[in-house]
User: What shape does this take?
Amino acid sequence: MSAVNGTVAPEKVDFSSDQEVRWCPGCGDYSILKQVQTLLEQSGKKQEEVVFISGIGCSSRFPYYLDTYGLHGIHGRAPAIVSGLRSVRPDLSVWMITGDGDALSIGGNHIIHLLRRNVHVNVLLFNNEIYGLTKGQYSPTSPEGAVTRSTPMGSTDHPFNPLALVKGADGTFIARSMDRDPKHMREVLYRADAHRGTSLVEIYQNCNVFNDGAFEVFTEKASKPAHTLFVEQGKPLTFANGTKGISITDMKPRIIDIGADFSPNDCWIHDERDNFKASILVRLFEDPRLEGAMPRPFGVFYVNERPTHEEKLQAQVKRAKEVKGTGDLDALLKGEHTWVIG
Amino acid sequence: MGSLTNGPEQVVVHRKPGYLRPANMTTGITRTKPIEERRNVVILFAGDSGDGIQLTGSQFTDSSALFGNDVSTFPNFPAEIRAPQGTLAGVSGFQLHFGSVEVFTPGDLCDVLVVMNAAALKANLSKLKKGGAIIANTDGFDKKNLRLAGYIDDADPLTDGTLSEYVLQSVDVTKMTRAALEATALGMKEKDRCKNMFVLGFINWMYNRDNGLTERFLEKKFGKKPELLDANRKALLAGYHFGDTSETFTTRFEVKPAPMPKGTYRSITGNQGTALGLIAAAQKAKLELFYGSYPITPASDILHELSRHKNFGVSTFQAEDEIAAISSAIGASYGGAIGITASSGPGIALKTEAMGLAFMLELPLVIVNVQRGGPSTGLPTKTEQADLWQAVFGRNGEAPIPVIAASTPIDCFEMAFEAVQIALEHMTPVILLTDGYIANGAEPWRFPQSKDLPEITPNFIKAPNDGERFLPYLRDERGVRPWALPGQPGLQHRIGGIEKQDKTGNISYEPKNHELMVRLRAEKVARIADRFKPIRLDSGPPEGDVLIVGWGSTYGAIRTAALELQAEGRSVAHVHVRHMFPFNKGLGPLLKKYKQVLVPEMNSGQLRQMLRAEFLVDAQGLNKIQGLPFTSAEIKEAVLNMMKR
Assistant: This one.
């Protein structure tokens, strides 16, 4: 453990704790941990001002591996813990670590309310489309038909499209990245950290024990270009090494071949401030195995600034103090009406 | 019982008043009829939930309290917000006991029953003493009302002689209210809504009460609607004059002021008491207060009250559900505020897992359970004490959490204060039990000065406690761990619900470490009993025949019964338990000093079983599970039966 003395910001601080990391060898979580540590070290944050809050699941062990403040909570409730912490501590850098089961199944009710309230927190949603810690049951993001330990005949459940859910709950920062693209992940995490409000980053994370290769088509060199779409602000939506693009007519996206008939100028230009386009972008969620399927987008889809929950809450406290004066306990105990017996 | 405030001991329950002490108490109306004196009177106002019964009752209560009577009330409303008019389900009641002597309960049976319709009579006749007075609004006994109330063949009890055991006085309130308001421009519906003021004016006359307080209340309420103010005033005065001039009523009654301790008083409901106790404690600890809650009857008024006091550094958070409510409070406590959540039984059930987390984290947290009738949704608007076991035992694993209980509205203030104090000074969640009976009403409160309240010292730490290392679970001599807030350099640490290594807090599955941690946490909670004041009898001899052991809102009924039995020369004592877990160390020895122990509870015997298990004492139960409080007569009878054996 690296102790920090005094208040002087360290030049270079090791954010890793003295605890042995106990994820399975080959787990995608390692890559995410590494990128977060790098970000923390390079961002000049002080260890003591950073707090990691998690729920339950493989990903939720994350706080133990960082030499910051950390709270490992109960299943699904991290958003509520964050909301309370944030309400009274607007000064901290708060990160929430969750998984597809934690955030979208048992904690589904909390994540949507965190988003609509716009609590200032960076949410990293590790999506591996499986329950890892309980050893291999299907999750709310597992595709229909997924054969797992609890669904030997295939899952009968329709999965969530996580970012469409986030969009539906009026999330103010919506992004997707993957464990196998550390550089992209780091860039997205920087953007997320810079946003005031709930920044939600869905990270495709491979569970090599119970669901190995779930995102292979997006992460492997051979298939990645044809099946992924990396969006950048102000740039046309192109993929397949620039040979294909996405155009949008009548609010409907379609794939176009760039070359003879179309140029990048015919493509949809990404604007992360565009609410309606963001709604379409999060809906590019087709099964990549289908013929002619839309590529899966990655990057920052949507950014919207609106006041955070704690700003509004603290403003009320401040206003109440201005209007009524800082609380006088004797006046409160006395109340508005008294009478004397004597 | 110990008291932070040395406040008055009487249990008095009434609703939120809006009064100031007037310069003089006269009505300006000539008193022409003889006045008889009474020591104490119980009146039950009953009518349709739209009849303004709660307002009538609370106004009369306020006038009586202002006059100097001791008062105790029991509001009883239907579970439905707008139950069908005229039906038994729609009857709303307000029972008031006022006296020139101390009163501790709303009264067992009433002397006067005021009914606005047939359903109100049918629902409440059993609560009237034989020979008691019925004041009935005849307009509420028409064919439709009789049928809705379920009177067979529309038989009218006002005329068929079935009420011959009572003194029946029929008054056409509707007709007379309309007549009084003939000159006003109001519609018939609005005129009829003034009926309750006519009744109040009449009762004010009957008990020699001043109209002034209600007039000032009306001015405040209808200040911007002069026509409504005028109509309500007229109806009030018409009721008063009716008493004075009607030939039917020949006598008035007077209940002189009670000998209350000198001082300045205010009124406080139990839920207000809880809210103010929480704020006072946060102020004394110099902390922000964060209140996470989800609306539920009968706890919501705590949220309403707290949300009005943001200038005390109070943040209120109406969470998406009960689990988020407590989890947000845990987050706030982690950040350095005092996190508080409240609910009633069903909501508390949902909070259970998070309570275990708070216990495991060893963070301060207060969980208030305003109990209601259960199980499941049960009886939302009725009272019960059936969540004691839930509070003491209802968690997975061994997670002992201190549980304390309030007995009166004033006690809600004191116990809420103590809950915060224990939470902050012992780094633990604390459960405070109140119930719908004391939460909904209020008593005159000789409120304390802030300087008389103790300072609270949170267990903060500012620097590493093991050389350069910080050990989050290094305990002091009381077994209490330090509270290190995020943002403090050098104190970075990780905590969680997963079992942790002694001292370091790192994850540990080591078998002996788990046993050690379970014991350390339990020991810490057990040691909280070291801070309790010596146990004190509420009344009665230090040893003798029967000890009545009560807890929570049964206080008033037990106190009344015990005092009566003592006055009759019986060797009966009363102790009221405030600390449900851990128990006061003096409780066990005290139980052994009496031949018999009676435990009255509004449940099937939860404290009784705990006492038997803990102290091997043959405690007997008196159990009432009707959603209604005990009457003192029920308790007295049980003690007498016990003594016969």
